[in-house]
Each structure stands twice: as structure tokens, then as C-alpha cells.
């Protein structure tokens, strides 16, 4: 076997994060994507001793696991890679994948409480970030998601199962409107063009909708007609915010050089477990609202009685979990790197009349050392790369009896738990929460205790 060879094989094992491992002769085949039991054709990208990395080219035969009817974009869109598997089976697969990661790191002896399914396995997303482009070179304008394995081709995903009809109506009407205007989309390869992104956000429990059209400043286009078109749509939600964001950044990410309010206000309201939150166009908020309520309830149950305790909420984002814990706590300190998120967290705490919450802007690794008060309980909810080793050292240095670790990436979670073990912490409880049905991702809540 050598680079660029075309091979055919049956997928053996799905690993967490959407990768698969198969055995072909005496060689272990690693591939992004795939479902156990599928027969696939793939191109060899890299060959190592006893291993090979390949890229899937074609599914030759479906797996016997694939008994669900997926959306019309399945296997073209890069989103819901396991949509064809029944939801209960998806949960079994994710549960086993997480347990395998724990066992691989010799983490035993804890109470494993299984996996909690999402209240909705479809129509659950409260935010979608779409990209302008075309599906084929020089084809008509499209607005949607990237094709699987492609950096350029964009599908208008009007049959997506993850969002409700309000998202679909905004998406398709936007695509039709700007097709008629014949405005160029922004091309990252030469940084020329105008239309960049369409971001739609919804307050699931408040029924408020935000539409944010993101462009460069290269064309001076009057968005009044576009705004009026959106306001005339027959939507279930209340369209309270229409925004125009100017973004001239070179990165392929939504950032704001200038924000123009076309209609209403620059935020939507949401409610979570009896608390109120204002969500700006760039705020982080869990994309599965009903799932988030279950996730934070799960974390609160792991904590148990925390009355009169000092709580550290690290990587606190907009302060959601800290405020959920604040009702019974003596004091909650939150640390978050992104200043806008900290401002939002403090504003949300005021909105909820929580006088015992203080959110601080700073790098957890550095800021945590400067906190004078000692915590009775620490909550960590880090981004995908996990907790820096220096931060683990400092967090462990507080000698808190309990730490609740909420993870969106069990691969880095288990590595961090091994580090915490070196400082005398043992895993007591683990439970998974499926926040992202039909995708390879899952959240995990862990309680570790000082021995």
C-alpha cells in the first residue's frame, strides 16, 4: 500500500469525534467519517508502519445500522454524519465510545450513569451560521453549509432536519433575494466579494428570532428592501432583531467591524431553568436549549447541596452554569477569557437579581491564581482543547473537595482527569448528555473528589 492508492474495505469501528478504524490485512486504516459495516472506497493519504490514513471517496454499500430515512442533503452536507442511524442506537454508540476513552486511560471504579438523550433529536438547534457561495463553480448563489470534505462548495440546506421552518424560510428567502440582486459572494482565496454569512438565532423558550446578514464593506448596498422582505415572511417566531454586520477580517469566521441595526434590537431574550438571558449576535449560548436545561440540571444534581458554598465557575462563558448554581451558593466567581462574554454574564446576573455572582475577564491559567477567596466547589467547562496543565495544577492547588467538569470533548476530558488524579482527585460519577443528536459529538459531566 502506498500514497494515492485507491482501496476498498469494510468499516470496523467508529471512534469518538467521527473517525473510524478498520483492519485491512496487517494494516490499521484510519479514516474521517464512516459508519460501522459500511463498505467504502478510499484514497490513501499517508502510510506509516502498520497504519494508513485514508480519505473516503465513495460509500459502496450501506451499513445494516442505517435504517433511518435521512434528509435530502445526507452524505453531501458535512453536518449530520450519523443521521441514518436510529436515535436510540446513536446513544448506545456514543455511550460506548466515551466509556472506551475512560478505560483506555485506566480510569475505573466510578459510578457511570449512562447517557441522557436530547429532549428532541431533530429541530433542536437555536443557532445556524450559514455561508454564501456556490455549489458548483460559477453556478447560482447558494447560502448554507459546506459540502462534506469541501472548503468551497456550499449547499443551500433547505431540507435540514436540525432546524425548524423559520430557519428554512429565512434561508431560502435570503438565497432567492440575493440571487436576484446578483451581488458577489466573498471569496476567501482572494478576499474579494461582498456577501459572507447569514446567522440565524432563536430564543426557543421566548420565541424571539434574530437574523444577522454579514458582508464585507466592498459594496455599499442598501439593506432596507431585504429587511422589509424578512418582515413580510410568515414566521412562527417574533422577528425582533435584524442586523447587518460588516466584517472585513481575513479569517473565515464571523467577526464584527461594524454592527448596524436594521430592525428592532441587537439581542434576543432567552430563558433557561427560570433564569433570563440576553443573547447578542456574538454571544456563546448552548445551541440546544432544551438539552442545555437537562445538562445543567444534571450538573446541579452532581453538585448536590451547595448552600453557603463558594463556587468557582471556570471558563464561564456568559455565566449560564454559574447563575444556575447561584441560587443556593454563598458566592459565585466566574472566569472567562472573552471580555464581551464577561460583560454579558454580569448583565445577566443583574437581570436575574443575583447579587452573589461576579464574573471576571482573564485567562483561567493566570487569573485563577489571583483569586483571594478559596472555593468549596469548582466547576470547569473548558473549550474543546480542555484545561491547560498549569491551570489544572492551580485549580488542584485550591484543595476544593469537589470539582464538576463539564466537557464537550471526552478525548481531552480523560487526559485532564489523569492529570487531576496526579493531584489526588478521583472520579466519582460520570454521565453523558447528548446535546448534538445525529452528529458524532456528546457532552460529558464528571464529578471528581479529593481523596
UniProtKB/TrEMBL annotation:
Entry annotated with the keyword Transferase: yes
Domain of life the protein comes from: Bacteria
Gene Ontology molecular function terms on file: rRNA (uridine-C5-)-methyltransferase activity
Keyword list, A-Z: Methyltransferase, S-adenosyl-L-methionine, Transferase
UniProt key word RNA-binding: no
Cited CDD domains: AdoMet_MTases
Active-site residues from the entry: 408, 408 (nucleophile)
Residues involved in S-adenosyl-L-methionine binding: 286, 315, 336, 381
Family membership: Belongs to the class I-like SAM-binding methyltransferase superfamily. RNA M5U methyltransferase family.
Name of the molecule in the record: 23S rRNA (Uracil(1939)-C(5))-methyltransferase RlmD
Gene source species: Romboutsia maritimum
Phylogenetic classification of the source organism: Bacteria, Bacillati, Bacillota, Clostridia, Peptostreptococcales
Amino acid at each position: 500500500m502506498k500514497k494515492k492508492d485507491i482501496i476498498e474495505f469494510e468499516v470496523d469501528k467508529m471512534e469518538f469525534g467521527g473517525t473510524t478504524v478498520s483492519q485491512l490485512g496487517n494494516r490499521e486504516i484510519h479514516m474521517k467519517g464512516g459508519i460501522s459495516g459500511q463498505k467504502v472506497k478510499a484514497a490513501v493519504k499517508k502510510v506509516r508502519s502498520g497504519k494508513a490514513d485514508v480519505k473516503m471517496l465513495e460509500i459502496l454499500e450501506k451499513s445494516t445500522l442505517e435504517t433511518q430515512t435521512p434528509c435530502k442533503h445526507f452524505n453531501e452536507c458535512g453536518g449530520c454524519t450519523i443521521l441514518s442511524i436510529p436515535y436510540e442506537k446513536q446513544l448506545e454508540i456514543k455511550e460506548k465510545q466515551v466509556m472506551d476513552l475512560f478505560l483506555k486511560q485506566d480510569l475505573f471504579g466510578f459510578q457511570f450513569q449512562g447517557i441522557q438523550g436530547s429532549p428532541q433529536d431533530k429541530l433542536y438547534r437555536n443557532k445556524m451560521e450559514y455561508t454564501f457561495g456556490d455549489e458548483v463553480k460559477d453556478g447560482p448563489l447558494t447560502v448554507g453549509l459546506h459540502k462534506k470534505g469541501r472548503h468551497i462548495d456550499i449547499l443551500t440546506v433547505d431540507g435540514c432536519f436540525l432546524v425548524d421552518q423559520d430557519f428554512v424560510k429565512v434561508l431560502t428567502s435570503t438565497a432567492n433575494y440575493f440571487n436576484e440582486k446578483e451581488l458577489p459572494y466573498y471569496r476567501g482565496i482572494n478576499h474579494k466579494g461582498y456577501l459572507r454569512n447569514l446567522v440565524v438565532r432563536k430564543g426557543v423558550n421566548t420565541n424571539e428570532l434574530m437574523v444577522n446578514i454579514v458582508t464585507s464593506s466592498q459594496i455599499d448596498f442598501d439593506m432596507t428592501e431585504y429587511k422589509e422582505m424578512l418582515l413580510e415572511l410568515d414566521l412562527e417566531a417574533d422577528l425582533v432583531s435584524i442586523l447587518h454586520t460588516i466584517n472585513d477580517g481575513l479569517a473565515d469566521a464571523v467577526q464584527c467591524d461594524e454592527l448596524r441595526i436594521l430592525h428592532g434590537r441587537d439581542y434576543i431574550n432567552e430563558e433557561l431553568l427560570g433564569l433570563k438571558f440576553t443573547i447578542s449576535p456574538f454571544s456563546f449560548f448552548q445551541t440546544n436549549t432544551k438539552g442545555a436545561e437537562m445538562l445543567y440540571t444534571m450538573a446541579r444534581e452532581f453538585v448536590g447541596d451547595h448552600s453557603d458554598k463558594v463556587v468557582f465557575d471556570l471558563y464561564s462563558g456568559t455565566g449560564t452554569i454559574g447563575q444556575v448554581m447561584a441560587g443556593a451558593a454563598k458566592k459565585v466567581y466566574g472566569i472567562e477569557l472573552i471580555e464581551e462574554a464577561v460583560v454579558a454574564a454580569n448583565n445577566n446576573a443583574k437581570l436575574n437579581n443575583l447579587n452573589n455572582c461576579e464574573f471576571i475577564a482573564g485567562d483561567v491559567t493566570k487569573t485563577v491564581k489571583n483569586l483571594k477567596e478559596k472555593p468549596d466547589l469548582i466547576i470547569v467547562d473548558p473549550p474543546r482543547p480542555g484545561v491547560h496543565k498549569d491551570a489544572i495544577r492551580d485549580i488542584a492547588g485550591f484543595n476544593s473537595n469537589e470539582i464538576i467538569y463539564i466537557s464537550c470533548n471526552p478525548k481531552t476530558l480523560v487526559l485532564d482527569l489523569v492529570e487531576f488524579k496526579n493531584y489526588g482527585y478521583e472520579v466519582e460519577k460520570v454521565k453523558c448528555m447528548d446535546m448534538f443528536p445525529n452528529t458524532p459529538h456528546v457532552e460529558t459531566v464528571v464529578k471528581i473528589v479529593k481523596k
